[in-house]
Amino acid sequence: MAFGVGKKMMRRRRKGRSKINGVFHDDVLVEILQRAPSESVARCKAVCKRWRDLISTRFFFDRFCGHHQLSGEEECVATRCSTRVHLFLFHPHFERQFSLDFLPFYESVITSKFVMGYCEGLLLCDPDAKYQLFYHIVNPITKTWVGLPAAPGFGADLDVVVGLAYYPDPPRPRFKIVRILPPREPRPASEFEVGTFCSETGKWIRRMVTSPKPITWTDFMFMPPPLFYQGYLHWMDSQMQAILYDVENDKIPFILDPPAGAAVPTEELFCFGLCGGRLYVAELHYATLRIWELKHQRQGRPEWSMQRQVHLQEESSIRHGRDWLPVISTSRLPLLAIHPLDINVVYIRIQDEVISCNLRTQTLKSFCKVPPCNCTMSITLPPWPTSIPQIQNS
C-alpha cells in the first residue's frame, strides 16, 4: 500500500530494494534466509518479488527443512484444559513461536473451549463457545488473526458443531467454515440446519442438509474438532461412528459404522488424527491397542482397515517400561493422541501423566505432565506459516 507515502519516498524505497538485490545473489540469500525462524521467513516474502519467488521454490523449502531438521510437516499435540490450551510434543523450531496470548479476548476467556477447529496450521477460535457468533481465523505462529462477519443466529440456546476446511490452491488459497445446528430434541434426526462461510464470497449461507440415517449430535459436543481430509470434514461420536461432510457440495454422503473389532467405546478410550497424511483411529481397551486407517476409495464408500492390534501385556510387545502395565491392564484409560508423524507411537493419560507407547521400540515411558483436560487436538504446523486467505468483501 502506498497510501500516505510521497513519490520521493517511493523512489527511495525502490532504490533501496534494487541495492539489496544487487548485493545478494540467490545462493547467498538462501544461505541467510534458511537460518531464520519460519515466521521471519514468511515476512521476508513481502520484501520484494524476487525474495518471494525464491522463498516459494522447492529448493529453498528443502534447504530450510534440512537446516532446521524438519520433516516438511511438523506437528504438535494440544490438550484443551480449564481456561487454556496446554501444548506438548513440540518440535523445538516451533516451541518459542507458538502462542495464543496475542488474541484480544485471550485473557477474558472463561470457557475451556475457545479453539473450535483447526486445519493446516490455522485455528478457528471464538470467545463464546455457547453461541459461536464471532469467529476468528488465527495463525499462532505469525500471531495474526482476522475476524469474520457475525454468523447468523439460530435463535436457540444450543451448542453448535463446527469445522474448518482450508484449500491451499494457488494462486488464491481459501477456507470454508461449516456450522451445524443440532436439533432441539436429543433424539436422532436426519435433517439439520447448516451455516457455511467461504472466504471467496465473504458471506454466510444457511441451508438444510439431510443425512443417510439419523444422527444424535449431542454425542459430538465434547469430542475433538473434526478433521479435514480428502475433501471431507470427519466427525466421530462417542461410539466411534464417523460422519463425513462433503465440504464442496454441502452434503453428508456417508455415515460409517465403528471399525470392525472395536470394543464398546466411550469418548475417553479412543482418539483419531492425521498421521503422515492419512487418517487413523486408535482404541485402547484395557491392555489391547488397536489402530485402524480410514481408506478413501476413488469411487464408493470409505472403509476402515485394521493396521495394528497389540496386546501390551505380552513380553513380545512391550519390553521396556513394563511397570506401567498393571495400571493400563486394570483401568479404562484415555488415549490422548496418535503421534502425528509416527503411527507406531500413541499417548496415554494416567492421571496427570502422559505416557508414550512406542510399538517400534517396545517401550512405555513417561513423556510429560498435563493438567486435567477435556479435549486433545493434533495441529499441523507447516515449515513456514500458512497465510490467512483474504476474505472477499460481502
TrEMBL record:
InterPro entries: At3g26010-like, Beta-prop_At3g26010-like, F-box-like_dom_sf, F-box_dom. Residues 24-63 form the F-box domain. Pfam families: b-prop_At3g26010-like, F-box-like. PANTHER family: EXPRESSED PROTEIN, F-BOX PROTEIN INTERACTION DOMAIN PROTEIN-RELATED. This is F-box domain-containing protein.
